[in-house]
Structures are given as C-alpha cells and as structure tokens.
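Handout, page 2. Input:
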Amino acid sequence: MSQIDTKARRAALASRSEPYYDRLAPGLFIGVRVLPDGVQTWTARARDKATGKQQYKALGTLTDATDDKRYARACDLAREFGNTVAAGLSGKPFTISDAVTNYVAKLATRSEDAADRARRSLARSVLAHATLPDMPLAELDRKTWAAFRVGLLVVRPKDGEPLDEAKRRARATATRDLTYVRAALNHAYDEGHVGSRDAWSLGAFADTHARRTLFLSPEQRRALLAAAGEEIRPFVRGLLLSAFRPGELARLTVADFDAAAGLCNLRWSKTGPRTVVLPPDAVRLFREQCKGKLPAAPIFARADGSGWQDANFWNPRVKAAGKAAGLPDTFCAYVLRHTAISALLEGGAGVLLVARLAGTSLDQINKHYGHLSDRVAREQLGRIKIA
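Output:
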C-alpha cells in the first residue's frame, strides 16, 4: 500500500532524513521527505539503464498544487524525469561544484557576510581540488571522502612553534573547512540531488581546541594603548572593553548603539544577532565615538571616516602596535577579545553574563576559561560563612 498518495497518509509519516518512496515503474520512483518542521519536499528517482546509476531530481514542495492533487502532480513530474533519463537527455550530472554554488547562493539570501566566509573556505578546500569539483555528487563514496578529508590536513609550523601545536591548528582549520563542505553537500541532499549522505558522514577531527594562553596584563594593555596610533587606538580599546569579536566591532554603526540604555545591537555575528548590555567603560567609549556621526556611520572608523571592514585593515595595525609595545609575536587582534573575557571572569562577572556579552556558548567559556571562573567561584565561596 502506498504511504504517500494522500494527504492523510503523508501527515501520518514520521520526520526522517530519507524519503518515503512509491514505485511508479521499474527503476522509477516518486518520494517525499518529511522535514522536522513538517514541510514535505518531493524527489524523483530514476535509474539510468545505460550506466546503472540512480539519477535524482528535486521537485520542491509542489505547493502550486492542492493537497488532493499534489501526489498526481509529483507522479507526472517524476514520469517526465524518467523519460528524460531513459532518452539519455538528463544532461550534465549534478556535481560537487554545483552543490557548492547552490549552498553559497542559499547563504547569500540570508547574509552576504556568511556567504562570503563560506565562499572563501569552499574555494580553498573544494574548488581548488584537482578532481573533486567536477565529480558527480552521486559518485562520491566514503573512500574518496576520507582521502579528501585527510588531504585538508596541512601542517605548517610557525617559527618556534611546537609541532603538536602546529598539528592542532591544522586539525582545527581542516575541521572548519569540513563544516562548510558537509553543509553544502547536506543542502544538496535536502534538495534531492542525491539519495544518501552516508558518503560524507565522517566529519570533524578530534583535539582541535586549545586553551587560550596569551593574556595581556594591565601593564601590557596600557603599553599597547600607548603604542597604538591615533587611528587604531579606539578600536583596540573597544575590543578590550567589550569582549566582541573584531569583525563584530568593525561592523557596528551608530544606529546599533542605544546610548541611553547602554545597549548594543550586534546584527552581524557568526553566532547570530544579539543585543547586549555593555560594561560602563565601554558605554562611555561608544558614546565618545558616536558624537557628531550619522546613524549609518561606523562607530569605530578609520581616519577617512570609513569602517575597518575586515582583518586586512585592522590586524596589521594591531600587530604593529603590539610589536611596538613589546608583546609576543603571537599577539593579534583576537587576543584582545580573550583578554577582555578573562578580565571579566576574573573580576567576578558570571559565566552566563560573559557568554552573552561575547556571543559564545557556556560550553566554550568553560572549555577555554573554566580555570578562571573556577578560581573566582572558590574565592567567592570562601567568603561565605555558613556555620
């Protein structure tokens, strides 16, 4: 008995990653996938008799047809697809490069910034690969994926860096790239371009996280601010006082800051938009930087009034200031975020409050800074007299 030919039967189906298929003819199937939110997407599947390989076509939600006509509409489209495959006219197979293109286009509809990060990562990991871009997605298997995954591990020790740390960094970079690749392939699967995602089930590398070790003392912070040029100094102070990511601070406009309430609305963040209460010193700095500026102007601007835009603009100046202040060679803009988080925790700010301000999870705070919050907790508990 068919499970998908009526609205009632489809409504009774449980959500799952694999479609529910009905056989229409030898080698021809129509399927419906039930997503966790209840949305149903249709897929046609046909076997190419010449090659013996399965061909897939995403049919979408078919909401242009009424519920009682949707199954018949899906069957008609599946038969058309089956005829196309049988005639050898299915055209160029859906490739891994196509999956990358579709995924970046999907991200661009939500956030051009997120799309740009994905585009750069996928260009480096997939599109620059010798053979992977032109490979039909349906032909990707576990062996090929495993070889590609290992190939992403490129160990390049920095001067004086221990080999173990260089390997950890390589695993972390490879894992970030794999996250984008798997997301692109999963999107292609969701669209019905391939019938299984088993081939790329092997994901992240282990042991990619390292505790942040470089923390600027109050003396080093003062030296850094003194060495920083007039143009970059407010940006450095902003990072030290807010615990924001450098890119988040760079994108803030005057309209994002509520001076009266001391609130900041971060619309562009890797973890999603958030509104936070700023520490008093940060509020004063933000107010100073907003004076005389229009709502669309960047809060932290360069000498010509333009924003800092990306790391190519701010990091060389931050590192130059660090060198002038005598800081270690490993110093970079992100160390300022780490220093701010550490200082907040050491000052007694709660882990939840710091996590919200920094836009990260409690797990990440505990993983990288748990030793600090534990020490503060012991000191606070030691001041409590119970008996």
